[in-house]
Design goal:
Chain lengths: 150, 351, 385, 161
């Protein structure tokens, strides 16, 4: 415990736990696909393809179950440049957070984009998935995205 | 609808780190002051409701200890929302509409200094697809800011002007954390924090608390020479996934504003809970604020952002100006969740 | 004063130590969809959603209502999140009812849940803050001394707690949603189960469960035309007192007495023992049944244990308590209070199935939380006032 | 699909800094000097320990400091038979509410050096301190309480108080 200056008595602590999350059939199927390096979306009640897939329609709440394969490449719809990555984020060098509309999808997926430099990122650019060497069935099987053709 | 008014408002000095003051020590004098202004004792208050977050405090049941600040003996009729105090005010307003009680004490509190707030807020995200990537709250706001900048006529200069005006306004708010004269051109020369956001586009990290007393009908008139009447209050939520939403608009604010009757009369002022500069631009449009509406005379969330109290403070700030005769009709707004996912709109009027 | 509120739909998940087949959203939807189905309604028929759960650390999701908005069909609607410790399921029901009673909405969906298997209850409930009390013996460590005081004061015989444990587990065998289905439960099994926090034995304690409970509430005009009989809400109340102060009576807390007096007065009940037909009471440790009997005014102080001893709180007794099996048989903490409220409503609707108490017309739902300091209750009836 | 994914692990770590309130800090500093500090409520006059800067019953700030003796009476207790995560204490052990002489509220602590089945409400106990050089700003400076051998005290009032 840190020795405090007069009056103040404070100490640091960590709230730390590894949660075990059961995922249910829809998320489970998506993650199983990732393990096999395949990205799947689900068809919403209005026919739009939602990626990552939800068990329910994001607007009406209706139950969904029709899957379609999408990506692995797509288009950046918006992005933010991170010059100082924080603990736990997908990359430990400067990168962009990006919303990416994968080919065949109608909604965008949030992930990291490894572009090297801010000047190489723009809305509308084409990017593609970079897989982790070993995939386990986790959102982080997608190591990040990278500019297409890079 | 029953006539319900805000008759008393207090807030803690908004500071980066309240240091040795725990939540009880912050709240106790505020509650006493708010009650004194209302001339009611806690035992005369019909209902009490608070807003706070366990993850902000870094401990479960953090609101339980806060009860110690009240003197809740004999036992009180009380509830708590794990939301900004503005939603606690909503719950209390509903209770008053039911009609069994005539007054309510509402408070919101939080010490954002305890944890790494940008990371803490990442736990609000989808626990399977998004939270495991740890996108921080500033980065998510930056995604929204760029979407707005690239799809509208707004520029980074407009955002800098929002920051400069809010902090200029805050000079007359002794409880504000950040205030002063800033030149928007000089602000634009600063480096990006998370591009396209600069430091001035982001809220300060704030410890604070806010307390409001509500009263109905004749009781409100007896307590206050000029009660700030709640003429409409509503809140709405949007889908969670950022990739599903149109981040450049705030449809939930638009809908809540319609239900609360924002457009039913001219507005003198607006207190908007916009932690990021571009969010004020989005909210202005969503609320249809016209030229001449005084926006955030308190300095808003860019001058002080005590999470879990900042939304309630907006309502209190607007009410104070109505009661003080500085305005006749105002709109106050509170937000929750990433990129304005959930929004509350409250219309206040003098007599 | 105010609109009359009716419970028109009730949905529960199967409670289990781990619902490994579902995500958090899947869990709340299982309950919500069943409640909608019971009410013969769809997502679009709901005006607002009120959700409750205990500490966010259970699932490691901060303010999970944000993530659950779409799953609960709340998009474009008002959504509130209540948290009042263990009483939260009850308080959530009370807040949802107030939205109807105040005339603000026509129909409200209210849901509460806990997915305790995502983490560990003992971990999630304990404070990690430095300088906090160094002895953390779990919830039982807090409540066992209160039980000991109750036994000392009331001179209740030792077997009372075991009787409650047996009765609630036998009742649970008649409730398909209950977590614990202990087919071979016996007094001897309870007695020989290990002591956890003496005087509390293992089988006198609640389990840790995954689960969700949901209700659809509607205003009078809609509820009276509901496809199945509604439960009419005759009164709701909440009371809070501080955790620790000099002279606090924790065994028989004033907050509970005041809350009962308030809810009974709203419901026009002057003799609860006579006028309440069945009650669902928050009993996480068996001895809390007699303790709450006294607190609620069903028995005089020091006499509550006699009701248990004489079988009056059993299914066939004259004051059946926890016909569903209670918290002792299913305990997804954030939902446990709402389950009490919903089971009370099921009884007066006549839809409780195998654990239905014949002719139940008026029922009490009760929940408590924190250090016996957060109390919420409602009284529901088959009769429209 | 073979072996579909049914669950995932998501590690969460958040770092916090906790600052004790003013009165709590004084209480903990007192412990480092071997003193147990309570406070008297200016409204109800009750003595509260640990000092918390507030009387929860009256909702007023408490300032008057009262040093309390390290002995008192067990008002109630339980015997913990299960291991407690993060605790070095081995079950079974006795957790008791102890009303220190002069205090109006109980302190939660361990009772030891007596078989658990001989612990009883009304029993007189005193603190067993760790060696002075191990003292820090914590109640753990008191290893546990042990029986004094004085005659038991007749109890009234509330369970934890």
């Amino acid at each position: 415990m840190a020795s405090p200056p007069e009056q103040l008595l404070s100490a640091s602590y960590a709230l730390e736990y590894t949660y075990t999350r059961s995922v249910g059939p829809v998320i489970g199927r998506f993650l199983t696909g990732l393990r096999e390096r395949r990205i799947e979306g689900i068809v919403g009640s209005d026919g739009k393809v939602i990626v990552p897939p939800t068990e329910y329609d994001p607007v009406t709440g209706e139950t969904l179950e029709d899957f379609v394969e999408v990506g692995p490449a797509g288009v950046v719809t918006t992005w933010a440049w991170v010059s100082e990555p924080r603990r736990g984020q997908p990359l430990d060098r400067p990168f962009a957070w990006a919303l990416i509309r994968l080919d065949g999808a109608d909604t965008a997926l949030l992930h990291a984009l490894d572009a090297g430099d801010e000047s190489r990122v723009s809305t509308g650019m084409r990017v593609t998935a970079r897989w982790r060497e070993e995939t386990t069935g986790h959102i982080r099987d997608l190591a990040c995205f990278e500019p297409e053709g890079a | 609808m029953r006539d319900v008014a805000i008759v008393s408002f207090t807030q803690a000095p908004n500071v980066r780190d309240a240091g040795a003051m725990n939540e009880v020590e912050i709240l106790m004098p505020l509650v006493a002051e708010a009650l004194e202004k209302s001339t009611l004792t806690l035992q005369e208050i019909g209902f009490t409701c608070s807003g706070s977050s366990d993850y902000l405090a870094g401990a479960p049941f953090s609101f339980v200890m806060a009860i110690d600040a009240l003197g809740a003996w004999p036992p009180i009729s009380e509830s708590h929302v794990e939301m900004d105090g503005a939603w606690a005010l909503y719950e209390a307003w509903v209770k008053l509409q039911h009609g069994a009680v005539d007054s309510a004490l509402v408070y919101g509190f939080g010490k954002s200094s305890s944890g790494e707030i940008r990371d803490v807020l990442a736990l609000q995200l989808d626990p399977y697809y998004v939270a495991p990537l740890w996108p921080d709250s500033v980065s998510l706001a930056a995604l929204q800011a760029r979407a707005l900048l690239e799809s509208s006529a707004y520029s980074e200069k407009d955002m800098a002007e929002v920051a400069a005006r809010n902090r200029r306004n805050a000079r007359s708010n002794p409880k504000a954390q950040l205030s002063g004269d800033f030149d928007s051109a000089a602000l634009l020369a600063e480096p990006y924090l998370v591009s396209p956001l600069r430091k001035h586009d982001c809220p300060p990290i704030t410890d604070g608390a806010a307390v409001v007393v509500l009263a109905a009908d004749d009781l409100a008139r007896r307590i206050s020479k000029r009660p700030a009447w709640i003429r409409g209050i509503d809140h709405r939520i949007e889908p969670h996934s950022l990739g599903v939403r149109d981040l450049t608009r705030s449809p939930s604010t638009e809908l809540a504003a319609e239900k609360a009757g924002v457009a039913r009369g001219p507005l003198d002022l607006a207190e908007l809970h916009a932690p990021f500069t571009h969010q004020e631009l989005i909210l202005r449009d969503a609320l249809g604020l016209k030229h001449g509406v005084d926006i955030n005379p308190s300095g808003g969330a860019l001058a002080a952002n005590p999470i879990m109290a900042a939304g309630l403070a907006r309502i209190g700030e607007a009410a104070t100006r109505i009661s003080g005769g500085l305005a006749n009709r105002a709109v106050a707004h509170a937000t929750s969740g990433p990129c304005l996912q959930q929004n509350l709109v409250c219309v206040l009027e003098g007599e | 004063m105010g609109e009359l509120c009716g419970v028109v739909g009730i949905g529960q998940t199967k409670y289990a130590a781990k619902r490994g087949d579902l995500s958090i959203a899947g869990l709340v939807r299982e309950a919500a969809l069943r409640a909608l189905e019971d009410a013969d309604l769809e997502w679009k028929d709901v005006d607002a959603v009120v959700i409750g759960k205990a500490p966010d650390m259970f699932e490691g999701v901060m303010m999970p209502e944000l993530y659950l908005a779409d799953a609960l069909g709340a998009v474009g609607k008002p959504m509130l999140r209540v948290h009042t410790a263990g009483s939260v399921g009850g308080s959530t029901s009370v807040v949802a009812a107030s939205l109807i009673q105040a005339g603000i909405h026509d129909r409200v969906l209210t849901v509460s849940f806990e997915k305790q298997s995502d983490s560990n209850a003992m971990w999630a409930l304990s404070s990690k803050q430095p300088f906090s009390p160094h002895i953390n013996a779990g919830a039982g460590g807090y409540f066992a001394p209160l039980i000991r005081t109750y036994i000392r004061r009331s001179k209740a015989p030792d077997h009372i707690g075991m009787l409650v444990a047996l009765k609630d587990r036998l009742n649970a065998l008649k409730n398909p949603y209950a977590h614990l289905h202990l087919e071979d439960i016996s007094l001897q099994k309870v007695e020989s189960s290990p002591m956890l926090w003496a005087p509390i034995r293992y089988l006198e304690s609640c389990p840790s469960s995954d689960g969700a409970c949901a209700m659809v509430l509607a205003r009078e005009a809609l509820a009276k035309d509901a496809p199945r009989p509604p439960a009419w809400v005759l009164g709701t109340a909440m009371r809070t007192e501080p955790t620790m102060f000099a002279g606090r009576e924790e065994v028989n807390p004033q907050a509970g007495k005041d809350c009962a007096a308030d809810v009974f007065s709203q419901a026009g009940i002057t003799n609860p023992r006579e006028q309440i037909d069945v009650a669902e009471i928050y009993v996480p440790f068996s001895w809390f049944e007699p303790m709450w009997m006294e607190n609620l005014g069903f028995a005089a102080e020091g006499e509550g244990w006699k009701m248990t001893d004489e079988g009056e709180t059993a299914l066939e007794g004259d004051m059946p308590i926890n016909a569903s099996g209670g918290v002792l048989s299913s305990n997804p903490i954030g939902a446990s209070g709402m389950i009490r409220f919903a089971e009370a409503a099921l009884q007066v609707r006549g839809l409780a199935g195998e654990h239905q108490i014949d002719g139940a017309r008026t029922a009490l739902g009760h929940a408590y939380g924190g250090g016996s300091q957060y109390i919420s209750m409602w009284v529901v009836s088959s009769e429209r006032p | 699909m073979d072996n579909p994914i049914e669950e995932i692990q998501t590690p969460i770590r958040l770092d916090y800094r906790y600052t004790a309130g003013g009165a709590t800090a004084r209480f903990l500093r007192g412990l480092k000097e071997g003193r147990i500090l309570g406070q008297r409520c200016p409204s109800c006059q009750k003595v509260i320990v640990p000092a918390r800067g507030a009387c929860a019953r009256c909702g007023v700030a408490t300032k008057e400091e009262i040093e309390l003796p390290d002995r008192g009476t067990v008002t109630t207790f339980c015997v913990v038979h299960i291991p407690v995560p993060g605790s070095a204490v081995k079950p079974p052990f006795v957790c008791a509410t102890i009303k220190l002489d002069g205090a109006d509220i109980g302190l939660f602590h361990l009772v030891s050096e007596i078989p658990p089945d001989e612990v009883r409400p009304g029993m007189r106990v005193k603190a067993q301190w760790k060696p002075r050089e191990e003292w820090d700003c914590t109640l753990e400076n008191i290893r546990y309480f042990t029986p004094t051998g004085e005659p038991d005290v007749e109890l009234e009032g509330s369970a934890h108080a």
